[in-house]
Structures are given as structure tokens and as C-alpha cells.
Write a structure and sequence with these properties.
Layout: H1 6-11, E1 19-22, E2 29-33, E3 39-47, E4 50-59, H2 64-79, H3 84-93, H4 96-111, H5 114-132, H6 142-154, H7 158-177, H8 204-214, H9 218-230, H10 234-238, H11 270-281, H12 289-301, H13 306-313, H14 322-327, H15 333-351
Helix pairs in contact: 4-5, 5-7, 6-7, 8-9, 8-11, 9-12, 12-13, 13-15
Length: 364
Amino acid sequence: MAKLTSRAVEAIKPMAVRQEIPDGLLPGLYLIVQPSGARSWAVRYRHNGRPRKHTLGPYPAIDLKSARALGSKVLRAAAEGRDPTGERQEQRANSVEKVVAQFLATHGQRNYRPRTFQEAARLLRQNLVARWGNRPIASITRKQLRDMLEQLVANGTPMLANRAHSIIRKLFGWAVEQEIVAVSPCVGLKAPAEESSRDRILADQELRAVWQAAGQMGIYGSLVQLLILTGQRRGEIAGLTWVAVDLIEALPRNSDRYVLSLQGGPIGGFGKLKAQLDKACGVTDWVLHDLRRSAASGMARLGVGLPVIEKVLNHVSGSFAGVVGIYQRHDFAGEKRRALELWGAHVESIVSDKSAKTKVVKLR
């Protein structure tokens, strides 16, 4: 059996059937020539007594010299009792893209609320899958993750970098538990930016301006007004269903399920709508979550006790953390109703203006 040469490889003509031409210099190495003329390299070996084939790649991207070098590594691994083809298949099964999909389908679906799940999926797909989707997840290094996060900070999105850091840590922690990776590359990887808690509270005149501008913005404006009145989270109000709520009879019923809906689903596009609201009301240095803090601060100013405010906000920490939360089962329904009525009356007194066509929704 003659050894292959570069000239011989070039000269081999395709036939009507697939050809496997062995290399006499490296037993087990074959040049495969397809009827179409396409050429590739493969190595044949045995593992646990069974024949195995390991594809090296196409010619001429891999020339004869490179094919022999790669083939030697495969044969050496087989001689050590390993199965290179099986290892490659396992790596492909544990690619970044596939492991992210498994994490979302199991851990994510079971533990995350819909909006949290959507955000986790977006962060993982944009920052991991888009970069390293086909790579084995075990090959991702701490330095690569750090560089990616620091780039997000450099792009002017430090909080996005922190959110990405958090969900990536959860992904790799889960992968360790599932024995997909031996060690998480996130060990020792700190959040790339310092978190700064917001303390913004809207003054009464600002609440009035926001309320009145929101009154001219349809469904989105109703959402903002409900945030002012209830102090709830944006996602909780956006996800209100008709089954759970019978509050706003005047709203158009665009969905059989969601109270606040534009096209059948829960309201979205908050960034664009918020920009329109800022322009209309003239208050710009705030975010929707500040309305929650403003409601809590306002109720405290009106004399509502902290435990009741925490119940209104659906907080599970603070006064009701630990043992207290386990054994204290009073639902505070009456106290919450009175607190919200008191706050609602205060909001009505703030926004009441004969020239403004707005209406405070009375909570039942």
C-alpha cells in the first residue's frame, strides 16, 4: 500500500461510487472522495472491539500533512482506550446552545415567572449563544466571560452586564449540578458593576403631571395610573387577567384574558411608551418602578403602618421575613383595603383638576 502524496490526492478523479483511499504511511487514515468530487479525511479505529470512524474534515481546508497530524492524535487517543468520536458527540450534545435550551426548558420554566423567564432567555441567547453557541460549554473560560461582561460595561450598559452575570452564574451552577461541567467558570467572577439602589420618589406635583399625561395615553396610561394607585410591580399590573380582576369596567376589552392589552397579549413596548409619557408630562428623571416607591412613601406619610405597606407591596422580607412569615397568617385584607383607599383619596386630591379629563379608579 503506497503512501499518499499531495500530488496524488489532487490527481484522484471521482467515480460513480464513493471511494475510500488509505494512506500507506498512517494506517487508519483515509481520503474519502465523493462522486461529486468533494474530498474529506477520516480515521478508522477500534474501541472496545468495535470499529469506529472519526471524520477529520474536508480537503483542501485540511491538507495531507495536517490530516496525518490530526489522525495521529485520534489513533493515540484510541490506543489509550478513549473513544474520540464518542467524546466529540458528547461535546456537541453539551454545546452552549443546547445546554442553554435545556436550562431554560427545565430550571427556567419551573422556577421563573413568565417575564423573568423571557429576560433570562434573552440575556443568555444574546450574550452566550450568539457568541459561542456551537462550542462545548465546558470550554468557556472565566476570562472569556469576564471580557464579555466588561465589554457590556464599556458599551454603557453596566446594569445589563450585572443581569447577564447573574443569569450566567445560575446557568453554570445548574450545569455543575447536572454534571454537564465539572467546575463553573463563574467561580471567582464578580459582578462587573456596582449596584446603586434608587431612592427616587415623585413629588405630588410630579405625580399630578404623570397622572394627567397618562390619562391621554390609552391602555399604557391606564397601566401607569394603576401603578400609581396600587404600588405594584410593572409586570404584575401588565399581567392582570380578567379572571383575577374586575376593577376597570371602562377599559376596552381587547383581550379575553389580559386587562391591559393592545393586540391580544399583555402590554409591552414600555421603553417607547415611557419616552412618550416623559415628553407629555415633562417629568423625565424617573422609571416606572419609582411609582412603587412613591406609593409606599406616600402611604407612610399618611400614617399607614410599615407592616401594612409591606403587605400592600407584596413584600416577603422586612417585617414578615423568617419565622414571623411562617407563623403569621393574618391576610391583612381589611388593613390593605383601608390603606389603598386612603392612598387613592390622596392621589385623587393631587390630580383633581376641572380641566383634566382624568378619573381615579375606585378599588373594590
